Amino acid sequence: MMEKVLRRFFRYDHFRTGQQEIIESVLSGQDTLAILPTGGGKSICYQLPSYLQPEGLTLILSPLLSLIEDQVMQIKQRGERSVAKLTSLETREQKEQVLHQLPRLRYLYLSPEQLAVPQVKQRLADVKINLFVVDEAHCISQWGHEFRTDYAKLGHVRRQLGNPPCLALTATATKRVEQDIVEGLLLQQPNRIRHSVNRPEIQLIVDQAEQDDKDRLLEAWLKKVERPCVIYTTTRREAERIAQQITNAAYYHAGLEAEDRQLIQQQFLYDEIDCLVCTSAFGMGVNKGNVRTVIHYTMPATIEAYMQEIGRAGRDGKPSTAILLYAPGDQRLQHFLLEKQYAPSLWIDQVVEGRRRHESFETMEHRLGLDPDDPAYRLLKVQLMDGKSRSDIIDWQEARKKIRLRELMQMINYIQNTLCRRAFILHHFDETAVVQDRCCDLCGNLTEDKPIIQTEDDQLNWKRRLEEVFFSSRHSV
DNA sequence: CGCTTACTACTTACGTAGTAAGCGGTGCTGTAAT
User: Fold this and answer.
1) Most CB atoms closer than 10 Å: which of A49, A71, A137, A333?
2) What whole-number distance in Å separates Cα of residue A262 and Cα of residue A373?
3) What's the pLDDT tens digit per position in A87-106?
4) Of all nucleotides in the shown strands, which has a C1' nearest the CA of A341?
5) Lookup: nucleotide whose C1' is closest to A99 CA
6) Matching CATH topology for A2-194 and A202-332+448-472?
7) Helix (H) or strand (E) holding A276
8) Which helix (H) or strand (E) holds A401?
9) What is the fold, at CATH topology level, of the domain defined by A2-194?
10) Is the distance between the Cβ of A253 and the closest atom of strand B smaller than 7 Å?
11) Is the CB of A237 under 7 A from strand B?
12) CA of A404 to C1' of B32 (A)
């Protein structure tokens, strides 16, 4: 039966690994958390069940407008017309029309922010929702706490919509991320379907250097590795600077116009450019099979982010390479960026005091010179509007910073690890290490399944090392 | 916080040291009312 639907509506003869299991779980009405390798055909997992149900809507929450556009287009291309999207790109009339069509609609794509709009929520509450899908569900953990807080509220919204079954999909999730997803979506005894996050086709290399040698090192690696190649940097300026030094390269970051971003992504996709230098803005939803190399000029803030980013290599399954360049002190920028997300206690005090005097946020913004677009200030505002007190917020900030510094430490541990890079990463994702060829710079093809490095239970050591890494310049004796 | 850039001061001939200012990621968004 399922194969028949697969052939008829999706024109595939067979399911790929994991798809069937997820679909069965979805059809059983259970909450499902699925960790599938990238490019594993995730969309079929939530699109197919709809054809086996007599009526009802499939709601798909997606993090990027561009992703929503792509998905809707792909569905239409396969001949399904009962699909719509609800984003800020639609006009008021279009939105109204979509909300009017709801009872007859099969798929609705929207951003998490749209679900915070009262009218959207109300109209959706009147409709039968078969499935509540959260695509790229790691965003709940990655963005939900600080940056896009509507992600953290999806569970409550789901309750308000009659608690339809939920399917959360992602490619990479540690236990912590999994926990964030379960809590954020209020999943009830979810069926957890896990596939290994290991990407055996990608060999892992870390190259440590002095800051001044990095450009030369990058140049040397570029002579050795195959293209197409993605180079990740932390800052936009660095992405632009490095792109200039490389032939047939372009840069990509969030400071570009949406049109330019799309154009460059397309050029890279069609091999007109074979080297893309970018910030973390690049990658989500990019389906390019032949990326041979991912180089990190500077490290990301977490191992999960690192896995997401190197995961863009070798989707065609052919041998690929991930290289991370590290110079002492590289973590400081990540540390700064992390700190910058939280309001300084001065702001908290000032704004709490202003509210006590019934001053509006707008007035305070003027009086105190606060930028209403600053994410840290916006987060503070959300928390205060949610009824949080000064001490709630301070305690929460402390707890979050501690978690995130620890994640950053894990990234450093990966770099300074001396056993096996792959084993370290798999261990981080609570998987057992595997032995394989083309493994990493530390073990080559001689991988052994050994106990790996310290983990969270190494409390004392952790604190000491944290001080060493972040404060050594000031506190050295 | 730490790195880079811009400017100033002082010295002494076009250069250098010292200080101040600026910068550093990710994306969504009913936006009320004249």
Assistant:
1) A137
2) 24
3) 999 999 999 999 999 999 99
4) B25
5) B30
6) yes
7) strand A275-278
8) helix A390-416
9) Rossmann fold (3.40.50)
10) yes
11) yes
12) 38
Quote the pLDDT of residue A458.
46
Contact yes or no for A297/A242 (Cβ under 8 A): yes
Name the nucleotide with the smallest C1'–CA separation from A258. B27
Q: Is the CB of A351 under 7 A from strand B?
A: no
- What's the CA–C1' distance between A299 and B22, in Å? 24
In chain A, domain spans: 2-194, 202-332+448-472
Q: Is the C-beta of residue A189 closer than 7 Å to nucleic acid chain B?
A: no
Protein CA at A473 to nucleotide C1' at B16, angstroms: 27
**Per-residue flag: A20 CB under 7 A of strand B:** no
Return the pLDDT at A464.
62
Confidence at residue A102, expressed as pLDDT on a 0 to 100 scale: 96
- For domain A202-332+448-472, is the CATH number 3.40.50.300? yes
Residues lower than pLDDT 70 in chain A: 39, 445-477
pLDDT at A37 (0 to 100)? 81
**Which tokens go with A392?**
């709630």
- The predicted structure's pLDDT at residue A436: 87
Amino acid A434: pLDDT: 84
Of A136, A54, A65, nearest to A304 by C-alpha is: A136
In 3D space, the residue among A248, A228, A252, A232 whose CA is nearest the CA of residue A315 turns out to be A228
Distance CA A288, CA A463 (A): 41
Per the listing, tokens 């790691």 go with A138
pLDDT in tens, A443-462: 876 434 444 444 444 445 55
Q: Name residue A33's beta-bridge partners.
A: A168, A192
Within 7 Å of a protein beta carbon, the nucleotides of strand B are: 1-3, 23-31
Angle formed at CA A88 by CA A87 and CA A91, multiple of 5 degrees: 100
Strand B contact at CB of residue A100, distance < 7 A: no
Structural contact between residues A320 and A291, judged by C-beta atoms closer than 8 angstroms: yes
Is the Cβ atom of A476 within 7 Å of strand B at any atom? Answer: no
Structure-token pair, residue A470: 């972040």
In this predicted structure, what is the pLDDT of residue A223? 94
What Å value separates CA A231 and C1' B26? 17
Residue nearest to nucleotide B31 (CA to C1'): A88
Name the nucleotide with the smallest C1'–CA separation from A149.
B28
Alpha helix (H) residue ranges in A293-374: 303-310, 331-339, 345-356, 361-368
Question: CA–CA separation, A109 vs A86, rounded Å?
Answer: 6
- By C1' distance from the Cα of A120, the closest nucleotide is B30
